[in-house]
Amino acid sequence: MAKNKRTAFFISDGTGLTVEAIGHSLLAQFRDQHVEQVTLPYIDSDEKVQQALKRIEQSASESGLQPIMITSIVSDKIRLQLHKSSALMLDVFESYLTPLANLFGRDPAQSVNVSHGIADDRRYSDRIEAVHFAMDNDDGRRVREFERADVILVGVSRSGKTPTCLYLALQFGLRAANYPITEEDMDSTALPKILRPYRDKLFGLTIDPRRLMQIRQERRANSRYASMEQCEFEVRQVEQMLRRAQVPYLNATQLSVEELATRLMSQAGIERRVD
Amino acid sequence: MAKNKRTAFFISDGTGLTVEAIGHSLLAQFRDQHVEQVTLPYIDSDEKVQQALKRIEQSASESGLQPIMITSIVSDKIRLQLHKSSALMLDVFESYLTPLANLFGRDPAQSVNVSHGIADDRRYSDRIEAVHFAMDNDDGRRVREFERADVILVGVSRSGKTPTCLYLALQFGLRAANYPITEEDMDSTALPKILRPYRDKLFGLTIDPRRLMQIRQERRANSRYASMEQCEFEVRQVEQMLRRAQVPYLNATQLSVEELATRLMSQAGIERRVD
């Protein structure tokens, strides 16, 4: 914990992923503040609360700045203990459970981890099955399984197809395959023959040639593959191919994997398979 | 939208993943309510707000029940338009930006998408590199790269190693390899020779034999591989092996991929590589 630097603690009795995401997007509105961000997951016992409180007070006294706590704590008891700290506390459950309880006319369950879909076997199996599908169908490995795919991503090598497919599988249980458009496919701007039967499942990723060059340079520095000329040629050919075949596509240059996945679903009208 | 069923809308000007996660955990506290959940991402224009409002009012009139909106909207203008709906509106930015602005003594940036790490090239490359590492090092494929791994997951086939590795890569930029303990490794309860140099990087996954059997039955029904006897034998051997070598492990039976990843990091003291 740096001196003169404020710390934001994201505290949860679960994974901490949700409060962390909330915290990131809130603090992004105050970029010039350079707040140190610390996630403390699984704070679900007296001992862990005490450790967390100690860490928070230490940051307060070392920096001389009031810490921030963004918390998602189901248990009233643990939440009250955290309230004892000197930090600014923003608790998701506290803010929203009361209005929801009023709406439903009943008290919340107060059971920790109820949110994590424990023993939700079907959902788990579907996601895992989708992950294995994405692994097996990466890089055009098994064209014969394209029949079973929900979506088939196409684009030049290193345009972001693989991580997007895996994210679609993990987060939404979608069976996402991908097929790299390689130089052999670029003699013509017609879709490669192998893809034609699946035109309705295709979705393209394109990328700024300069960014593509950067990414490829990290992989194979000073190769022809990573040259500006080659990157420009490939991107131009693939964009023409996608437009000509009227395959929808996204430019991946400025987008995170999460954004690529959700924008693609929204643009292509693909529904998730698991919640 | 079903009749007599209340709908909760998760509305965002970005991916919607954060409000969706908040919504899921809040509504999980009211399980008996059977609320239909609908995510509306990228609501960032007048036209899209109007479409969203129409959908919300339609759900209200068809069900006769007040809808819920959990929203994360940076723009004041769009937020005010949503306020016109008849739904109960819980807005993350509205609830928390004011206290944060007071603390920092300045106004929030009000820039949509600022939260998505646009053009954060380093972070993107690290995650992508980690994803490719996980793919290349799945299923013990390239033992020679274990040297570069942050963690090596070990466990029986279908204990959840692959999705956990991919999640660690995508979410935290960690280089996660995995190695399946197969029957040949089970003659002894000593660690397989190949793993011994990396003992400090190992983390075990174990699973309830009954659940393992279910998962394997879906893959290869009625095989020896999926028999109760075989599952019990493998799990017992691997647990003995992990205990004997003092390799930390988690039981994957009741945990989601997100929980496995975050608990593992917390238990093994592994720090994320990207925020």
Give structural notes.
- The structure is a homodimer of 275-residue chains.
- Chain A is α/β, with parallel strands linked by helices and 275 residues long.
- The first copy, chain A, has nine helices and eight strands.
- Chain A has helices at residues 17-27, 46-63, 76-83, 92-104, 121-136, 161-172, 209-219, 228-244, 257-268; strands spanning 7-12, 36-40, 68-72, 88-91, 151-155, 176-180, 202-206, 249-251.
- The first copy, chain A, has a four-stranded parallel sheet with strand order 2-1-3-4, with helices on both faces.
- In chain A, strand 3 (68-72), helix 3 and strand 4 form a beta-alpha-beta unit.
- Chains A and B meet through helix 1, strand 3, helix 4, helix 5 and helix 6 of A and helix 1, strand 3, helix 4, helix 5 and helix 6 of B.
- Chains A, B: InterPro entries: Kinase-pyrophosphorylase, PSRP.
Chain-wise SSE layout:
The structure is a homodimer of 275-residue chains.
Chain A (H helix, E strand, L loop, with lengths): L6 E6 L4 H11 L8 E5 L5 H18 L4 E5 L3 H8 L4 E4 H13 L16 H16 L14 E5 L5 H12 L3 E5 L21 E5 L2 H11 L8 H17 L4 E3 L5 H12 L7
Parallel strand pairs in A: 1-2, 1-3, 3-4, 5-6, 5-7, 7-8
Helix pairs in contact in A: 5-6, 6-9, 7-8
